[in-house]
Fold:
Amino acid sequence: MSGQIFYHFLSSRNAIHDLERKMIRVSRLDDLNDPFELSPYLRYRNSEVRKRFHDVRKAISKKHGLLCFFESWSEPLLWGHYADKHKGITIGFEISNYEILKVDYVEKRVKLELTNDPQENEQLFLNTLGKEKYKK
Structure:
């Protein structure tokens, strides 16, 4: 089954480590380089609401990870941010379209209303990542 090539940017050290072990490291939310990534609760003034969102994010971080791929290897900004300040490596992966979720970047923040069901809250939170599978 053929798919499209997507690129993952790494430091040289991490790329060699991954290639030698034939594995790729998946990041947890708690390990992301932007501490505010996926933190929609920061916009709420009520500290109790913020704590509930924080708890949902922590629970998700224990169960789910993420791995970022890009459609192009030639974007200088990506090399600067994700490939060790232009000194790293990008690895291309052939990924079937049905296996990758495209993240929707929106200008307006999404407002979430938590419920009393932890699993429902987790799904609400995860749904903010993207609405559709990647389409060419």
About this structure: Residues 4-133 form one domain.
